[in-house]
Fold this sequence. Notes:
The model has no long low-confidence stretch (mean pLDDT about 85). By secondary structure, the protein is mainly alpha-helical. The N and C termini lie far apart (about 125 Å). It is built from 2 helices and 2 strands; from the N terminus they run E-E-H-H.
Amino acid sequence: MAFSSKGNVVSFRPSRPSEPSGKRSPNRLPRNVRRRRLIWLIVMITVFIWFLSEFVTQTGRISAREAELKEKKAEVAALKKEQKALRKEIKQLHDEEYLKELARKYGYQEPGEEIYTLPEGKK
Length: 123
């Protein structure tokens, strides 16, 4: 370490000279550091690939479940509509006039009543 004559500025100089060209360059990391970094890179790439595969898989599962839910909602809506029609019919079954009309439709008649039918085609 040396102090500059320009003020209170400190400059750092290497304490030993550069190694000869046959040996390691000063920018090269030790072998164990490079190995740890390579292992870390491999682990991170593996985690990233696993994350992407899980994301794609779960996105597919979610979209399939949403389609299934949509079908079930449509089925529920149809069943509610049918239930409403059945409730209306049940209310009509409590009406005596409707029951008489329904009985005549199936060929039943009250005692003393005669039912006349017209032939098809002549009305």
